[in-house]
Specification:
The protein is α/β, with parallel strands linked by helices. The protein is 38% helix and 18% strand. A 7-stranded parallel β-sheet has the order 3-2-1-4-5-7-12, with helices on both faces. A two-stranded parallel ribbon has the order 6-15. Helix 1 (11-22) links the parallel strand 1 and strand 2 (26-31). Helix 2 (54-63) packs across helix 4 (86-106), helix 6 runs parallel beside helix 9 (284-295) and helix 9 (284-295) packs across helix 11. The radius of gyration is 19 Å and the shape is globular.
């Protein structure tokens, strides 16, 4: 199969492109290079440009009439930045996506796999069971059932970034009901780590996500690590996330494109939402414990209030991904931490900066 991957020069997009290649498929990358580095494109078929450029999308389809599916991953993704720059997020994430979808549908390339987000779910006041009694070796569900979210649970995104994802989901659902467009919407939880061969990974010089901050602290690039939010209704007061290895996430996309028609046939609808996560929660303190266990060292920590747009967190119910995609995670939290550390040592060689 030949797959159009928008945002294919990004962290998740480039890893997904590699997973597609390893499964015998041909990715065609469309990326503006606004954030994703050209180095991540490697020797793949590549078009530099905007997803909202209808002429460019038409040219791609004309030059690759055998495109089977589009994986739409191109987006602005930094939550605090979305609070500061909402216009740019709604313009780039929503308005341009609508142009892309309509053009693809008109050109007869109507299968879309969309990168959505677990941050859409309404915050749940899950039970607090007191401080964790020791380091976690993986996702925990004990005492955290109140934080589990299913695809049909209430949505209440708390940031402009998350609201853009919700708007796109609604647009896809409506367009699929009214046209020949068909959509599988994958609600990602928290991908971490790098691809197995360390060819791509987190590229931001100062990543905003938790594991990236921990890696910088362990390498002496920061004085320490700041835990943002310590009085939340979780078992130890810190935010709870469902972390999964980015390679597992990439594999989920392979399943989605390979089983596209069967997935929708089983769902009985022209569009469907599927959670993509490990199926258990890890708090920030537990992630720090796991990181220190993997590295064998200590990370100095300080505490601060939650950042604008931050949510308490949730973890995925993964029944639907197992049923429709026959997919589940295979790599552990420790595997993801090790790969993130290995990428930090390698990325200067790939990107030219630490």
């Amino acid at each position: 199969m030949k797959i159009l991957v928008t945002g294919g020069a990004g962290y998740l997009g480039s890893t997904t492109a590699k997973a597609l290649e390893e499964a015998g498929h041909v990715p065609v990358v469309l990326d503006s290079l606004l954030t994703g580095p050209q180095a991540f494109v490697r020797d793949r078929i590549f078009y530099e440009g905007d997803i909202g450029d209808r002429g460019l999308v038409r040219r791609i389809v004309e030059e690759h009439p055998d495109l089977d599916v589009t994986i739409h991953m191109a987006a602005r993704i930094v939550v605090p930045e979305s609070v500061e720059k909402p216009y740019e997020y709604y313009r780039d994430n929503v308005a341009k996506s609508l142009e892309l979808f309509d053009q693809l549908e008109q050109l007869g390339k109507a299968r879309i796999v969309f990168s959505s987000s677990g941050s859409l779910y309404a915050v749940k006041a899950g039970p607090s069971t007191g401080p964790s009694t020791g380091p976690s070796t993986g996702p925990s569900t004990g005492g955290d059932q109140g934080f589990e979210v299913r695809e049909d649970d209430p949505l209440a995104p708390t940031s402009p970034y998350a609201r853009t994802k919700w708007m796109i989901e609604q647009a896809l659902e409506d367009m699929a009901a009214a046209t020949g467009l068909r959509a599988i919407m994958l609600r990602y939880f928290n991908p971490i780590g790098s691809d197995p061969d360390l060819e791509s990974g987190i590229y931001a010089k100062e990543p905003s996500h938790v594991l990236g901050q921990l890696v910088m602290a362990s390498r002496g690039q920061r004085d320490g690590f700041t835990i943002t939010g310590t009085d939340l209704p979780t078992r130890d007061g810190t935010g709870l996330r469902d972390y999964l290895h980015v390679w597992d996430l990439a594999r989920a996309h392979v399943r989605a494109v390979e089983r596209f028609d069967d997935v929708l046939a089983k769902a009985g609808t022209p569009s469907v939402v599927i959670n993509i996560g490990r199926g258990g929660g890890v708090t920030v303190r537990e992630l720090v414990d796991a990181f220190e266990r993997v590295t064998g060292g200590r990370v100095p920590t300080t505490e601060a209030p939650p950042r604008p747009g931050d949510a308490v967190g949730a973890y995925a119910n993964v029944d639907r991904s197992r049923e429709l995609l026959d997919w589940r995670t295979e790599l552990s939290l420790d595997d993801a931490i090790r790969s993130a550390l290995a990428w930090a040592e390698k990325r200067h060689e790939v990107l030219g900066y630490e």
